[in-house]
Amino acid sequence: MSFTKTILASATAIILAMPAFADGIMIKDAYIRSSGPNAKTGAAFLVIMNETDQDDTLVGATSDVAKRIETHTHIKTDDGVMQMRKVEGGFPVAAHGMHALQRGGDHLMFLGLTRPLNQGDMVSVTLTFENAGDMTVEIPVDLKRMPESGMTMKHDMDMSNGTND
């Protein structure tokens, strides 16, 4: 590996390890993926931690890499098929709680990609919270990441007592 690639890889690792903060909201473990270079859609996954005394809601997001971004989730239909659906009103995050956006569950859906999402790219995304307002985060594209085994589909956790809502 060349010296430049080593420095770039080290810098990327440091950036990925650093959570983003704004007005008591912290974003951790964020990444974006798409199905390939010609994909018209992509998805972002992240953990939102609300370290304030007030409930908040992620109501939307914007980025120059997509015509629009919607809050989405997967639901099981009556016939047992998992389908993606838009979530009206966004994702609530309880005071002193967290909400995980993860594969197979809640996520940010990037619709009408304006360019390919390549492994290692950094994407600027502005998250809009009902109370905390706008928060811009740099999210890496990670096309190789696999879902964690044993991933839970329960998303809300009260951080003050460690119990699920």
Q: Would you mind describing this structure in some detail?
A:
The protein is mainly β and 165 residues long. The protein is 9% helix and 50% strand. It contains 1 helix and 13 strands; from the N terminus they run αβββββββββββββ. Strands 1, 2, 3, 5, 6, 8, 9, 12 and 13 form a 9-stranded antiparallel sheet that branches. A hairpin with a 6-residue loop joins strand 2 and strand 3.
Briefly, what is this?
By secondary structure, the protein is mainly beta. The protein has one helix and 13 strands, in the order H-E-E-E-E-E-E-E-E-E-E-E-E-E.
Provide mean pLDDT, rounded.
Answer: 83
The ordered string of helix (H) and strand (E) elements is: HEEEEEEEEEEEEE
Oligomer: single chain
Helix content: under 10%
Query: How many distinct helices?
Result: 1
What is the overall shape?
A: globular
Radius of gyration: 16 Å
> Strand pairing plus helix content: what structural class?
mainly beta
Residues in β-strands, percent: over 45%
Low-confidence stretches: 13-18, 150-165
Largest sheet: 9 strands, antiparallel
Please report the total strand number as a whole number. 13
